[in-house]
Amino acid sequence: MVRVVHARRSRRINLARPHRRCVPIMIPLVPLAAVAAGSIATAYTIAIAREAKCPRRATYAWALAHGSPASPAEVPGVGAWHEGSTALGSFDIDHPAVQHLPPSARSMVLPWWVVEGRGKGTMLLIHGWGRSRWDSLRRLPWFMEHADTIVMPDLCGHGEAPGTTSVGLRDHLDLDRFMGNAGFDTEITTDTPGGLTIVGHSMGAMVSTRLAALLCERGAPPRRLVLLAPYDSLIVPVSNRLRARGLPAGPFAAAATWWWDRGEEPLHRTLSRVQCPVFVLGGGLDTVTTPDDVRRATAPHEVVIEDGIDHAQVGVDGTASRQALNAFLART
After folding, report:
1. What is the C-alpha end-to-end distance of the chain, expressed in Å?
2. Who has greater pLDDT, 83 or 46?
3. Considering the chain, what percentage of its residues have pLDDT values greater than 70?
4. What's the average model confidence in pLDDT over 258-273?
5. Cβ–Cβ under 8 Å, residues 90 and 106
6. Mean pLDDT of 142-168
7. Which of 77, 152, 75, 150 is nearest to 115 (CA)?
8. Is residue 126's pLDDT more than 80?
9. What CA–CA distance (Å, rounded) separates 329 from 156?
């Protein structure tokens, strides 16, 4: 009886020994796991930042693939139009937004289309991130009656414009020089009742607001500003796009966007320096810049949110949106 009990105890002890030996073996794996997790997080953050800086090009092939107009001639109601490109000279290297750029990146070429409308004044129609002047063609019919000259450029790093995008950081500086170099009148005077209307979608809305604030500080404010699906800061669309894909956002989006958007004021602060009428459109189905995002970014300005419209269709579809926009443009 005693021997049996002793044998069982010995067996129980032997079974426990391998587990005790594994504990010290696992300890060195803890820092390795931490390094691996950190590497994955870093790679994920870099991938987010890289995608933001290098979006896919929306060019002629993009228009054909999406069933969009391939040129202004394919937009109903368009008569005369012409195209070209404007070479921009060197930046002012004292400007903080471009001090980090090498000399080779301080000059660029912006392709553009100019369409003759049936209204008065000049209109600058600015596309969003990952889009181009081909995407601006989709919004052209809404504005044909409200300007006699409608200018649609490609922002740097988009469409056929060379380089990489600044994600809205310095595009307003490019467009300021572009309008001057191309000879467009941006100053409101009694002799030019049409003045300048600036329209921007998504990232283009941020660029439009910064350009309008720049012109106001110069003493030549635009006639009016139209913002389509705007956001307050870069982290908003980046986080929302990641969530829409089922990917984690959290600190990863914050880290990626901080590097590109650091030191830049949010949209609502820039709007406080804009001295012209402002109108805002949003989509009820927009998951990139949600209705709440749009309202927070543009309060207390007039905002129209139409149900059933997603991010890409803001300024393209929506009867109520178009009627509200026409009313705003007519009274301003």
Report:
1. 104
2. 83
3. 69
4. 81
5. yes
6. 93
7. 150
8. yes
9. 29
CA distances from 26 to 15, 33, 238, 277 (A): 19, 11, 38, 66
Report the SS3 class of residue 82: strand
Domain ranges of the chain: 32-331
Distances (CA, A) of 163 to 58, 85, 243: 14, 15, 28
Distance between CA atoms of residues 98 and 112, nearest Å: 23
The whole-angstrom distance between residue 105's C-alpha and the CA centroid of its chain comes to: 20
For residue 13, what are its two tokens? 């002890």
* Residue 326, both tokens: 């026409």
CATH match of 32-331 with 3.40.50.1820: yes
Alpha carbon distance 4, 173 (integer Å): 90
- Count of CA atoms in the C-beta half-sphere (13 A) of 187: 9
Tokens of 156: 């740097």
Band of the pLDDT at 168, cuts 50, 70, 90? confident
**Residue 1 binned pLDDT confidence (cut-offs 50, 70, 90):** very low
Q: Which residue has the tokens 């880290």?
A: 255
Query: Could you tell me how many residues make up the chain?
Result: 332
Burial 121-142 (b: 16+ CB within 10 A, else e): bbbbbbbbbbbbbbbbbbbbeb
Structure-block tokens of residue 77: 């109601």
- Asked whether the predicted pLDDT for residue 327 surpasses 90, the reply is yes
Cis peptide leading into 31, omega within 30 of 0?
no
200: alpha, beta or left? (left if phi > 0; alpha if psi -120 to 50): beta
At which residue do the structure tokens 């929302």 appear? 240
